[in-house]
Amino acid sequence: MTAINDTQAQQIQKMTIGTDKYPMPLPPKFDNKQQQQQYEKQRLAAAFRVFAHYRFDEGLAGHITLRDCIDPESFWVNPLAVHFSKIRASDLVRVDHKGNILEGKHPINNAAFAIHSRIHHARPDVNAVAHAHTTYGRAFSSLGELLKPISQDACMFYENHSVFDTFTGVVADLSEGDMIAEALQGHAAVILQNHGLLTVGKSVDAATANFVMLDSCCHSQLLAQAAGELKLIGHEIATKTRQINGSDLVTWGNFQPLYQVMLAQDNSFLD
């Protein structure tokens, strides 16, 4: 789990009331790597429940991966053909960058390996990657353009995402995964033209919350463009807004209410 630096904490504290008496929630710390691994697997399983909640499932498509904290050259991914709403921590599969399954009893989606393996390899700062073919993501991706800063939420992705404008069909080999990783350009998200959306984060909490927000922003812009001319937020304010709502602590925090809902509905993902 990534530590939150003092500057980030001070920024968030300005957005809250009562933090002296009632401390704001922060990412947990762990006594050992085994404890951290189990915790993070449970968060990954919860992330799939969130995807199911938002109906981000489309047949065999869609995957979220998490770099293993004990063996960083491997990552956890969802089992093939198991619905997101049914995934438990014990169902997850760990695979290395050569495609060897190290833990788990299920096959995995080859596209998940081809895309996510190369991003994890190219971006050591990224611990989690989320991708799905959502309704609004597919629709927006067909435009082949960036999101515009039309709202506070959209500013999170201002100069913080890119477009991958090459579509060759179902991703089946590592070379296209390398191209997607390059297109990501150090950003938090990439719009895969004619394909869908992909987000990353320093935690699975952040990557998942980023994806939910990106899909929502695509939806908002599609609605706004259909209604009339867009009024954009200026560069300086959009940048200032992104520095806050795109910070590590806020992106991690955005997942916490979602996790609480999943936990209250059905906590079987913890198993």
Automatic annotation (TrEMBL):
One GO cellular component, as annotated: cytoskeleton
Transmembrane segments: none
Gene Ontology terms: biological process: monosaccharide metabolic process
GO molecular function terms noted in the UniProt entry: actin filament binding
Any Pfam family the entry gives: Aldolase_II
Domain Class II aldolase/adducin N-terminal per the UniProt entry, residue ranges: 42-222
Superkingdom as given in the UniProt entry: Bacteria
Similarity section: Belongs to the aldolase class II family.
NCBIfam families linked to this entry: PRK06208.1 (NF004855)
UniProt protein name: Class II aldolase/adducin family protein
